[in-house]
């Protein structure tokens, strides 16, 4: 048994017991670890990369929090390392990397954290380099928009959470002369999605677009898909606030940074209007609130709570108390409705939709009939992020 796994096993039971009297952020994180989630299976799927990445990103936020104990941070570091080692061999070929979704870039934070801890790990640096090299190899549509996956000319909101963070982090640490160029491409990608996917009725963004406008679901003018999917928009919303944070010190006076902030504020305002007035949380299909079959979905709602809290905390949003109140109401609903006490020291998480792909009819019925999963890390890890932000407000 590797030391990291032994360390995790020795500390997990006591840390879960401690978490039960502590905060939801560490309690849910410890519960995710107890289930062995965020580690690649023997045969990874296209979804594996983002599942590992969102767990690692949540744990890394806890590692950087002054509210988390030293012992807990060491446990989380060991688990992030274990997750990285479980998938690293599949990332070392840049050409092969382009066959995976843009979600692959979500692994960048974990790789970077491990490399900065031990720069003798050249295979980790090789993984980072291969991911970076894969950006130039990634197919793009005629507008310059990155394909999300292997579907020609299709760009999704989903990929921006992973891509924007990685491109910014890699150039900052390893290629600072390319930082502005990377920032321009990040903003271009975000803007292309905005211009093609903006919904004039809600002020929100549709799931994605087909630049060729040939998909069965494509709007004949914009190429946009017809549904505002909560989780896809959640990835995009988190991408914006995380990019703003990562670039505040170097670019806060730049037109790019101010532009990204204006987009973030615009989305935040639209999300406030789109929140369900009863629960305070958000619908699976956001442009059809209250329609038969629609429901409050837990992962997208957790992502929006995280973004609103963080945007208020970092003063990216005006009238911070207004946004905090919106986030407070939604967070309270998430905690009371979707958090499940398993009565064994761990927490479960409910109400997360499985996967919604544009490789489908992409109509309303499709989005509201996809199965709900129990303990999906897309929801539980997002709740860790939302909980940490909630606890930082206190």
From TrEMBL:
UniProt keywords, alphabetically: Hydrolase, Signal
GO molecular function: hydrolase activity
InterPro entries assigned: 6-hairpin_glycosidase_sf (IPR008928), 6hp_glycosidase-like_sf (IPR012341), Glyco_hydro_88 (IPR010905), PolySaccharide_Degr_Enz (IPR052043)
Gene3D superfamilies: 1.50.10.10
Highest taxon, organism lineage: Eukaryota
Signal peptide coordinates: 1-18
GO biological process: carbohydrate metabolic process
Protein name: Uncharacterized protein
Organism: Talaromyces amestolkiae
């Amino acid at each position: 048994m590797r030391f990291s796994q032994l360390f995790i096993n020795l500390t997990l039971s006591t840390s879960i017991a401690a978490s039960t009297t502590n905060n939801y952020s560490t309690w849910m994180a410890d519960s995710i670890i107890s289930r062995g989630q965020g580690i690649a299976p023997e045969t990874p799927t296209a979804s594996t990369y983002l599942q590992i990445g969102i767990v690692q990103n949540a744990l890394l936020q806890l590692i950087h929090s002054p509210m988390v104990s030293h012992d807990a941070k060491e446990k989380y570091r060991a688990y992030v390392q274990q997750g990285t080692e479980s998938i690293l061999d599949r990332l070392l070929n840049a050409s092969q990397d382009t066959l995976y979704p843009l979600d692959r870039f979500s692994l960048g934070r974990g790789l970077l954290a491990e490399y900065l801890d031990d720069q003798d790990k050249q295979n980790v640096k090789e993984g980072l380099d291969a991911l970076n090299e894969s950006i130039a190899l990634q197919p793009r549509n005629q507008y310059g928009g990155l394909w999300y996956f292997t579907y020609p000319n299709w760009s999704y909101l989903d990929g921006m959470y992973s891509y924007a963070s990685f491109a910014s982090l890699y150039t900052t640490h390893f290629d600072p002369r390319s930082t502005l160029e990377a920032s321009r491409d990040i903003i271009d990608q975000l803007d292309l999605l905005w211009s093609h996917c903006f919904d004039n009725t809600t002020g929100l963004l549709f799931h994605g677009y087909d630049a060729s406008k040939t998909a069965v679901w494509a709007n004949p003018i914009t190429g946009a898909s017809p549904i505002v999917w909560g989780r896809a928009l959640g990835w995009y919303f988190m991408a914006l606030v995380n990019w703003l944070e990562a670039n505040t010190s170097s670019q806060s006076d730049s037109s790019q940074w101010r532009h990204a902030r204006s987009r973030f504020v615009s989305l935040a305002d639209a999300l406030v209007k789109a929140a369900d007035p009863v629960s305070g949380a958000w619908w699976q299909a956001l442009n059809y609130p209250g329609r038969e079959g629609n429901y409050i979905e837990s992962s997208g709602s957790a992502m929006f709570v995280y973004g609103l809290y963080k945007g208020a905390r970092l003063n990216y949003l005006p009238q911070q108390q207004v946004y905090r109140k919106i986030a407070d109401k939604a967070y309270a609903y998430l905690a009371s409705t979707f958090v499940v006490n398993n009565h064994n020291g761990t927490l479960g998480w409910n109400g997360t939709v499985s996967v919604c792909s544009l490789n489908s009819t992409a109509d309303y019925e499709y989005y509201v009939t996809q199965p709900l999963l129990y303990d999906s890390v897309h929801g539980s890890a997002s709740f860790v992020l939302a909980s940490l932000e909630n606890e930082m407000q206190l």
